[in-house]
Specification:
Radius of gyration: 27 Å
Number of strands: 15
Structural class: alpha+beta
Shape: flat
Number of helices: 6
Largest sheet: 10 strands, mixed
Number of domains: 3
Distance between the termini: 44 Å
Strand content: 35-45%
Helix content: 25-40%
Order of helices and strands: EEEEEEHHEEEEEHEHEEEHH
Length: 351
């Protein structure tokens, strides 16, 4: 393997255009917030410095202890989680950051055309048969967005940042090796109004809460391009579910305004059952934005029993009811498997 050399980023300083205080930043950052007066400056190019007039913050109301309590309360809820998970979770680390997002207010409209595969019966008597045919279909849909674009190059530098985008998976249940999950426990992010509740940017409550401000790297124009591309991608995916085959899909995105908004987040890492999991808490709203969590024994028993118990009962009823005793006994065997799994799981004591 070829050796790679990591070149350290150069630390730089810029005087705040509002109060004159020095702003420290790393080479590559272009959206800088003064920790003395709270004004934000955008480096739009060589020797071009722009003061951002419209920048806001979701005022943090949770400090570190409150965020941990919120996470533990959330871990204590829900039937899929192990009993007592909130109290049993072993706290590994807590880190708080005020993260820069470009919120792109936009309206997207999509028109699509496609074909649906259908079947029909033709002929009669011995000539009767089922044939397949394609039926044309089309439609339109539209939606308003306040689309979040993380104002830094690497969306993976902090866990959970992309989960704010509408339609992104944000809850991750850990079923381990259990196969019969039926997709339960997962959740996608809603199309929420991320401009609701914002206030003019100020440093009030940030330093005292233990949160650290993160500078941005992506300028406004690029954020708008990114938002457009991701909205088109999202609408393409929605259109794909409306017909068997999509032949044409056209989406128009109109940007109605863009604002730099700082979102305070607490990332909490906890351990349980020999594994580490993460919870992302919105320090402004107190909501759990994204989370990983273990699935408890009871949920697995219920899923297993539902699958084998119901299937076995149906087979037994159908088999014995029609005189097909082999099928009936197969159904009884499936019910017995469900009962045995329940007993073994309870006796093993595993959570």
């Amino acid at each position: 393997m070829a050796e790679t050399t990591n070149v350290p980023s150069e630390n730089k300083t810029l005087n705040c255009s509002n109060c004159g205080a020095p702003i420290g930043y790393v080479e590559g950052e272009s959206v800088l917030t003064c920790e003395h007066c709270g004004s934000t400056t955008m480096l739009a190019g060589f020797d071009q410095i722009v003061t951002i007039q419209s920048h806001s913050i979701m005022r943090p109301r949770l400090d570190e202890n409150s965020a941990v309590k919120t996470a533990r309360a959330w871990l204590s809820e829900g039937r899929l989680k192990p009993s007592g998970l909130g109290d049993a979770a072993d706290l590994r680390s807590v880190s708080g950051r005020v993260l820069p997002y470009w919120i792109v207010k936009s309206f997207a409209s999509t028109s699509w055309r496609g074909m649906n595969r259908k079947t029909r019966t033709v002929g009669s008597g011995q000539q009767k048969r089922t044939e397949e045919y394609w039926e044309p279909t089309s439609g339109r849909f539209s939606e308003n967005y306040t689309w979040p674009v993380y104002a830094r190059e690497n969306e993976a530098e902090y866990w959970g940042l992309k989960f704010l985008e509408p339609g992104q998976k944000c809850l991750f249940p850990d079923w381990r090796r259990f196969l019969f999950t039926f997709g339960m426990g997962s959740k996608t992010s809603p199309n929420a109004n991320l401009l609701e509740g914002r206030v003019p940017f100020s440093l009030d409550g940030i330093t005292d809460s233990g949160l650290k401000i993160v500078n941005g790297q992506i300028v406004q124009a690029r954020a708008e391009e990114t938002a457009r591309a991701r909205i088109v991608q999202s609408h393409d995916a929605k259109a794909a579910g409306k017909a068997t085959r999509i032949t044409d899909c056209d989406t128009t995105v109109t940007v109605q305004g863009t604002e730099l908004v700082y979102l305070p987040m607490w990332e909490i890492v906890y351990g349980y059952g020999g594994r580490d999991y993460r919870v992302l808490v919105n320090a402004a709203s107190g909501a759990v934005v994204a989370a990983e969590y273990p699935v408890g024994r009871t949920a697995k028993i219920v899923n297993f029993d539902l699958l084998f118990g119901i299937l076995g009962g149906l087979l037994a009823a159908a088999g014995f009811g029609t005189g097909h005793h082999g099928v009936g006994w197969a159904g009884v065997a499936l019910v017995a498997v469900a009962v045995a799994y329940t007993i073994i799981s309870l006796v093993s004591g595993k959570k």
